[in-house]
Amino acid sequence: MKKIVLTGAAGRLGSYLREPLSKMCDTLLSTDIVDDIGTLYEGETFVQADLAQMDEIKPLLEGADMVVHFGAIVDEAPFEQLWGPNFVGSYNIWEAGYRHGVRRIVYASSIHAVGMYPRREFIGTDVAHRPDGFYGLAKCFTEDLGRMYWEKRGLESVHLRILSAAQVNNPRALGTWLSYDDLIQLVTRAIDTPTVGFTVAYGVSNNDRCPVDNANASFLGYRPKDNAEEFAEKVLAEAPEADPTDPAQMCHGGPFASVDLGSSGLAQMNVVDDRKKS
């Protein structure tokens, strides 16, 4: 490919995607709202831009083959805060992509689009949306946006419902973990699969306790290799007593399912910022 655009390049997941994406194309255009992302990889350029501003986003997509859209506020927050980057930002990416003839958009969706389903239900990619907050609602909006742009305008997209791409330090993560190596494989398969139409796939590793079913997305060829079970003994020994009345423990969305609308879900979690340094 000649050009890939990566949004959210300064984020934790974006930091692990930049190098492999730079090797898949002549030019990787990385973008984020911050003013610097560190040393650039060979073939990578960086442009500061606000997802909510079409006049800043549209020029970046000119000549792009694909967009890997990971830019957003990545937490539950008041609707007004999420509106620009998470709702309008998605529209701007899809509309700019359509205007410039982009072939495909790979989107960082989330388990929070279906976060209120009970964990005892082994859910597939075809279940109805059931968001656990405004953040999850933005993911539902963008999945529906992607389906509409495919069916009405022929713009392909793959929506990766990431469960928890973070260090395994709690019982829920024994099922939801997505390792960084598996993240890279998943994004790579979403890019190099010849045709995808509109596709939803769960972003999760090969965990023994995986709570979701990726069978409908098996054609992507994503075959995760890592398994969180290697952390199980330590995590379970240190975990507090389980509470079956706690939505954070009983719903797919974890802590996001238990906090009030607009209140941070990440504040209830111990997510380690181990982003890759370039």
From TrEMBL:
It holds the Pfam family Epimerase. SUPFAM superfamilies: NAD(P)-binding Rossmann-fold domains (SSF51735). Signal peptide: none annotated. It comes from the Bacteria. It comes from Aliishimia ponticola. GO terms for molecular function: oxidoreductase activity. The keyword NAD applies. This is NAD(P)-dependent oxidoreductase. Residues 4-162 form the NAD-dependent epimerase/dehydratase domain. Keywords: NAD, Oxidoreductase. The lineage of its organism: Bacteria, Pseudomonadati, Pseudomonadota, Alphaproteobacteria, Rhodobacterales. The keyword Ribonucleoprotein does not apply.
